[in-house]
Amino acid sequence: MDHFDLRDGVLHAEDVPLSLIAEEVGTPVYVYSTATIERHVHVFREALAGVADPWIAFAVKANPNRAVLATLARLGLGADVVSGGELLRARAAGLAAEKIVFSGVGKTADEMALALREGIGQFNLESEPEAEMLSAVATSLGVTAPVAFRINPNVDAGTHAKISTGKSEDKFGVAYDRALAAYELARNLPGLRVQGVAVHIGSQLTDLAPSRAAFEKVGLLIAELRANGHEITTADLGGGLGVPYDPSLPLPPSPAAYGEMVRDVTAGWNVRLVFEPGRVIVGNAGILLSRVVRVKQGSADPFVIVDAAMNDLLRPSLYDAWHHIRAVVPRGPSFTANIVGPICESGDTFAKKRPMDQVEPGDLVAFMTAGAYGATMANTYNSRPLTPEVMVSETNWAIVRNRQPIEMLIAADDLPPWLDEEAA
Questions:
Q1: 344 is annotated as an active-site residue
Q2: How does DSSP classify residue 162?
Q3: Which of the residues 344, 410, 412, 419 is marked catalytic?
Q4: What tens digit of pLDDT does each residue of 130-152 get?
Q5: Chain-wide mean pLDDT for the chain?
Q6: Residue 373 annotated as binding?
Q7: Does the annotation list 381 as a binding residue?
Q8: Which domains are delineated in the chain?
């Protein structure tokens, strides 16, 4: 469920007409609904009823806007970060350091030192060499790092290949059959305190069976580790629960069904469970608002050319992802069209042969379910400025990231002395 609804013939974000935001801010622009974020946090928490003190660490990579993170901080969430930059964003938004988990395969020594100085709650280590580096960094700072190993369970998540992370050929985690040796290594390294086990098999999961299989392996591993004298107090089950994009496909499992499965599998583990939801919290809470530039006749179906492009919303080009496209002021008739952006790439295509509201030049359209992996993956290809972002709360709205002036992009380039006329 989201809070983007038609009222008096105009699509609104909560109580604000999207046409007003387009007029004031211009297009393309991302728009987020506070009420939707709050509702999804409530639903996810409710799904975990019966789980003792769950540690819910929002996956910052899904949407790192500081206003979004500050909203989640007020709701008591923690954060799952995968870079020093995400860590700094989370802290700037007010997320508590002790509720932060640091994941990712390529943590640098500088990032480790930053996280240790901040006092984060857990490092999810993804290799033995990473454990050795963190040991050296922690020892040099005179502190102890709380750690878990991310285990690769060799489970196929059944999702898109580019967002699958739990198979043996994927780059993530320590192989399951090498886990005991990795934990033995960590136990003997100074500056580390082994406290948990972590797993994450992929994103946009549409079936609970792979997650159940991975979690069952984690349960067996916890028992083995304890038998070998390790004190395991946390189990990070990752995130990845899918959201509905394409209405022609079966609905992903509900948070309630996920919570029921978790309670069943983890009964008797006697650990604090960690969850890393991202898309399921913010996916439906955001849309990308765009304006039709022109409608061009194609050999079969017309091309609707909009002012948003693949640099603003990369998912369709990168993953062949499906986003529902709605007219902000629908006239009633529909037609079949190809929806494309202005970038000089054939890949700058949002949809082909898509039945949709009939639109004309100047009309506004909304790409739905764009709150996750939307603005965060935007770039400046074709020298297009980064997309602004707006947050809505009931009748109130505010720009939470300004449109980047093209002059800022140009000014970031420095000429070498032999090309700098002023230097000459």
A1: yes
A2: G
A3: 344
A4: 999 999 999 999 999 999 999 98
A5: 93
A6: yes
A7: no
A8: 4-31+283-411 (2.40.37.10), 34-282 (3.20.20.10)
